[in-house]
Amino acid sequence: MEELTKGMRFIQIPLEAHRINALHQGLLPQDYKLDKLDDRYIMYYSEEVSYKNIRGVSCFVPSDTPHNVPAQSHEKLSCFFLSENTQLPSELIFIYTHKMSLRFPFGRRQNALHFLIAPTRRMTKEDYEQAVKNLNWNVCEMKVFAEVNKLVSLDEDLDDVEDFRMVELYWLMEYFYENKANLYMDRLHMIDFTTWIAQTKPKFDDLLNQEFRSYIVFNILLHMDSHTQSDLTTQTYIWDILGELNDVFKWNESNFLDDCLPDTTLRAQG
């Protein structure tokens, strides 16, 4: 396969792509964007647009087989995959966004590629959700369940991280992972963020240059701030980062907070 570049689009699945709870989980707020002109429908992407502006359902391609999945118990989590060369219907497209770096269990690093399944024609949120579920998902039998009651973090993770806003973000992801995060994809993204910070020592501008990562951070922090009670220090860190992101991207908070997660969304136990 040709070398992947960010924003590359596929009508066939190029590599075996996995999604946790693909048949059971409803859409997450970051999976779609409502049409500003008619909020009965979601935004769609029929033509080439910057991958930074695309919203879609997250999938990942693990580099290791068997691959690790963060689970509290074997019975509570199902991982599904789309086989390589699976043909997508005309209303969906498969888009590459970035590389993920994950640490679980302790001492184990796993790389993955992150993709989105995005809509290509006008449809309702419900139709989009069903179109994704109607894909030819297979139960993944190759996974290794990794018990991650605690996020993998090391004392030296923040050594040489010079931008305190990135230190704040690391602390927030660690705090929310341990105390607040229930959705599996949120937990997976938190693992990715803390690993990224620990390994690359980025500045806040590096985050701003990755709009998709910034979008996920904004979504997670906004929901945690709105739906949980935190101490003043934690709230101050949240507001600091949310303010910085909002100044740059001008995201509308109502797009993130108006949507309720369906009752069918499976959550982590523990």
Q: Briefly, what is this?
A:
The chain is an alpha+beta fold. It is built from seven helices and nine strands. The radius of gyration is 18 Å and the shape is globular.
What would you note in describing this structure?
This protein has 270 residues and is an alpha+beta fold. The protein has two domains: 10-148, no CATH class; 155-249, no CATH class. Helices cover 32% and strands 18% of the residues. It contains seven helices and nine strands; from the N terminus they run βββββββαββαααααα. β6 (92-103) and β7 (109-119) form a beta hairpin. The longest helix has 18 residues, at 232-249. The N and C termini lie far apart (41 Å). Residues 71-75, 144-148 and 258-270 have low confidence and may be disordered.
Write the layout of secondary structure elements.
Blueprint: E1 9-10, E2 17-20, E3 57-62, E4 68-71, E5 79-82, E6 92-103, E7 109-119, H1 125-133, E8 138-139, E9 144-147, H2 164-179, H3 184-200, H4 204-208, H5 211-227, H6 232-249, H7 253-257
Parallel strand pairs: 4-9
Antiparallel strand pairs: 1-6, 2-5, 3-7, 5-8, 6-7
Helix pairs in contact: 2-3, 2-6, 5-6
Features:
270 residues; three-stranded antiparallel β-sheet
* Strand content bin: 15-25%
Instruction: Determine the fraction of residues in helical runs and give it as a percent range.
Output: 25-40%
Task: Give a count of the beta strands, DSSP E runs of length 2 or more.
Answer: 9
* Arithmetic mean of pLDDT: 79
Secondary structural class:
alpha+beta
Shape, please? Answer: globular
Number of domains: 2
Q: Profile the largest sheet.
A: 4 strands, antiparallel
Low-pLDDT stretches are 71-75, 144-148, 258-270
Please give the count of helices: 7
**What is the first-to-last residue Cα distance?**
41 Å
Q: Order of strands in the sheet with the most strands? A: 1-6-7-3
Write down the secondary-structure element order.
EEEEEEEHEEHHHHHH
**Using only CA atoms, what is the Rg?**
18 Å
